[in-house]
């Protein structure tokens, strides 16, 4: 009998078993979680800045302006009448600014206590504090004679100068119409005379040095509003008391 052929048996090898999965989250999740946590902290920090006290923020802003000599654009039309440029440079020290802020608060309180919101106005800029009063509230019509019934306004001006070490510029303004009396031949003379009358009253009441005060007449060259109506002309007829910190350039 012929020999039997050997049978070849193929045994299929089993694939190696995969390692058991690791317990817990995959590694990339830890990095993602760290990033989300940092973003959360960042937005919480932004929120804390947004809720900062406004007064502290204004103080910080002013300090930075002083440090870098920042110029600010005056956007209020009321200031345009007496500003030489729409940009004013901040030159006051922190102490002087604090004094000016206290002065503005004091004048506003005086206006509110006397219910004179429609009679007086106060504004501040980078150089000082401006108190604006209509001419009719101080003078007899068409004259530079002070009305004794409303002298309390000038008494307040004088009191500030007596108690505080400020410089003062008194500015007289008229409208565009020519004068209609025989005392003053032009608005230049009328505005200057009114400024001088106020200045003389302040000096007499306060007893301060005349080196701390100035009087200027602008006539109708610096209107607050266009001289297109009687109401607007009444607004432009005014006296301004401009307080400034002491300065060697005064």
The main sheet comes to: 5 strands, mixed
Question: What is the CATH first-level class name of the domain at 76-244?
Answer: Alpha Beta
CATH architecture title of the domain at 76-244? 2-Layer Sandwich
Strand content: 5-15%
Please give the alpha-carbon distance between the first and last residues: 140 Å
Stretches where pLDDT is under 50 for at least 5 consecutive residues are 74-90
Q: Tell me the number of strands.
A: 7
Mean pLDDT, nearest integer? 79
The CATH topology of the domain at 76-244? 60s Ribosomal Protein L30, Chain: A
Radius of gyration: 38 Å
Strand order of the largest sheet: 3-4-7-5-6
Question: Which structural class should the secondary elements be placed in?
Answer: alpha+beta
| Morphology | rod-shaped
Helical segment count? 7
Assign the CATH superfamily of the domain at 76-244.
OmpA-like domain
How much helix, percentage-wise, in residues?
40-55%
Q: Helix and strand string, N-terminal first? A: HHEHEHEEHEHEHE
